[in-house]
Amino acid sequence: MDNLTFADTPTERCAYYRRTCGLPAGIHPEVGRIVVRAGIVGAITMPAPLGQRVRDDMLHNRITLGPIISHLRSSRWTFLCRPDLPNDMTLFAELFRLNVTLVPHGAEIALPAPSDTRTGHRHWIVAPRDTFRPSGLIVLTALRSCTARGPQC
After folding, report:
1. Tens of pLDDT, residues 80-138
2. Could you tell me if residue 144 is inside a domain?
3. Overall domain count for the chain
4. Is 108 in a helix, a strand, or coil?
5. So what's the pLDDT on residue 141?
6. Mean pLDDT, to the nearest integer, of 48-66?
7. Quick check: is 135 in a domain?
8. Residue 114 in contact with residue 13, Cβ under 8 Å?
9. pLDDT at position 1, please?
10. Radius of gyration of the chain measured on its C-alpha atoms
11. Rounded distance, CA 2 to CA 112, Å?
12. Rounded to 5 degrees, what are φ and ψ at 71?
């Protein structure tokens, strides 16, 4: 995806995200950052090594992956998903202990933009191809499976 199946301008990439991927993205014109607000889209962010384990667990169990963003500087991955996780303090506490966060409703999720190719801020681990995003519950199940088995997941 970062060798670009879509155009190189923020406007064209944003249009791709909107039309093809169903992501209601917008642009911060002063920096060319492309963002989508959590709400219609859910997101779960975790340390990259845990994200790799979760992705591998999902693949092993033949679960279709949705879009996954790597944030290189913070070494974190964000799984875009359907916003179907409960607003539950017990769940937040469980995830907090794992250094995992649910992106809150209304928060901005930065999507890879053309400038990120040069700056190395973020890139797609799994690029969006269409409007598919897995259930947040499925990502959570894979996360729990990995953390229950320890670091060898």
Report:
1. 999 999 989 999 999 999 999 999 999 999 999 887 766 778 999 999 999 999 999 99
2. yes
3. 1
4. strand
5. 97
6. 97
7. yes
8. yes
9. 43
10. 15
11. 8
12. -100, 100
Residue 38 pairs with which residues in a beta bridge?
Answer: 41
**What's the average model confidence in pLDDT over 7-35?**
89
Question: What is the extent of the structural domain holding 22?
Answer: 10-148
CA distances from 90 to 25, 95, 97, 110, 142 (A): 31, 9, 11, 27, 18
Nearest Cα residue to 130 out of 1, 22, 12: 22
Residues 84, 11: Cα–Cα separation, whole Å: 30
Q: With respect to residue 4, please indicate whether it lies within any of the assigned structural domains.
A: no
Helices 136-149 and 48-60 meet at what angle, rounded to 10?
100
**Residues 81, 131, 18, CA angle at the centre, nearest 5°?**
105
pLDDT surpasses 70 at 19: yes
Long-range CB pairs of 20-26 (<8 Å, 24+ gap) are 20/128, 20/129, 20/130, 21/67, 21/128, 21/129, 21/130, 21/131, 22/130, 22/131, 23/80, 23/111, 23/128, 25/111
Report the distance separating Cα 129 and Cα 45, nearest Å. Answer: 20
Residue 153 lies in a domain: no
